[in-house]
Design a protein that fits this description.
By secondary structure, this protein is mainly beta. It is built from no helices and eleven strands. Helices cover 0% and strands 61% of the residues. The strands form two sheets. Strands 2, 4, 5, 6, 9, 10 and 11 form a seven-stranded mixed sheet that branches. Strands 1-3-8-7 form a four-stranded antiparallel sheet, with no helix packed on it. The model has no long low-confidence stretch (mean pLDDT 96).
Length: 120
């Protein structure tokens, strides 16, 4: 019912920047929140950043001040601007959205993930 298309991952040197995008489409009436999780090999998935429909944001401590989450409500798209990247930011990043569908169902959807590798 809801499709997510992610883009923007890649290989970057320490200190570099990347911007991730995630566009949601499908049977969407409204979006409660949009966010990014990440999972590194051998580690559990963690919430990196989230933004609500009201514009409130949350960041995990390790990215505070380096990452910025934003959204374009008209395009149902969320962005994650990642600056001053560190090797420990290397992970697969997943988009997650919490929506209300057109048949009034509350639904959480995951993207396929995009790889971010920070290495010299």
């Amino acid at each position: 019912q809801v499709q997510l298309v992610e883009s923007g991952g890649g290989l970057v040197q320490p200190g570099g920047s990347l911007r991730l995008s995630c566009a949601a489409s499908g049977s969407i009436s409204s979006i409660y929140s949009m966010g990014w999780y990440r999972q590194a090999p051998g580690k559990s998935r963690e919430l990196v950043a989230r933004i609500t429909s009201a514009g409130s944001t949350y960041y995990v401590d390790s990215v505070e001040g380096r990452f910025t989450i934003s959204r374009d409500n008209a395009k149902n798209t969320v962005y994650l601007q990642m600056n001053s990247l560190k090797p420990e930011d290397t992970a697969r990043y997943y988009c997650n959205v919490h929506v209300v569908t057109e048949d009034s169902t509350s639904l959480r959807s995951w993207g396929q993930g995009t790889q971010v590798t920070v290495s010299s």
